[in-house]
Amino acid sequence: MEEKVVIVTGSGKGIGRAIAERCAEHSMQVVVADVDENLAINTAKEIKEKYNVKTMAAKTDVSNEEQVFKMVQKVIDKFGDIYALVNNAGIIRLGKPFEEVENKEWDLIFNINFMGVVNCCKAVLPILKKNKRGRIVNMSSMSAYTGGMAVTPAYAASKAAIMSITRSIAKQVAPLKITVNSVAPGLIDTEGASICNYRPEQVPLNELGTPDNVADAVYFLLSEGARHITGTTIDVNGGIYMK
Questions:
Q1: Domain ranges in the chain?
Q2: Is 155 annotated as catalytic?
Q3: In 149-231, which residue ranges form alpha helices assigned H by DSSP?
Q4: Which of 158, 173, 208, 217 could cysteine-pair with 189, CB 3.0–4.6 Å?
Q5: pTM surpassing 0.90?
Q6: Which CATH superfamily, name and number, covers 5-236?
Q7: Left, alpha or beta for 52 (phi > 0: left; psi -120 to 50: alpha)?
Q8: pLDDT tens-digit profile of 67-121?
């Protein structure tokens, strides 16, 4: 079986780690890219030992275009190829009245959540185009539809922008058999989202989502089973937002 290399950003912990583990479980070689170097190193080591796959830790600030391109080059130097990119890195902020959200907060959130996706796609797409195959999955959010239940407007807007750019890129690269999709989690029980105080009774299924729930959706989009799906969003929200 061919070994496929996947880069998962923000995969030191939480949803990103669950995605990295799901990929490793299916024999993919995993690049754990995270702004926290120690977290990346430890996670990559643990995944390698648990799933007997090749891994690589890469300290990466996705908002820094130069760092992203250097990371991708290191991946090519080590593995020789890249099959997939999962843009999971992001930050969350609690909501507040719109007029109280300072421009520096908009800049911070968009630089990481949105430009991080832009930077990573720009770095990886030339490789996927050369191979005429590959997968990209971008992490959006239910807040892109709802405007957010507990998060800042800047966060919700950044996630809506991710859905839009997912469709734009998907249209351009579809003739090359490269698929580009997004996943929109709802209320997920993670350390990062703990500040939002989500409750199971807010969800029609009466339970908060888990990182594994999101990882299942992401891996499906990376798999051969999703080869005819592109430019769309899979919602993982337990029925809060139905469309």
A1: 5-236
A2: yes
A3: 153-173, 211-222
A4: 208
A5: yes
A6: NAD(P)-binding Rossmann-like Domain (3.40.50.720)
A7: left
A8: 999 999 999 999 999 999 999 999 988 888 899 989 999 999 999 999 999 999 9
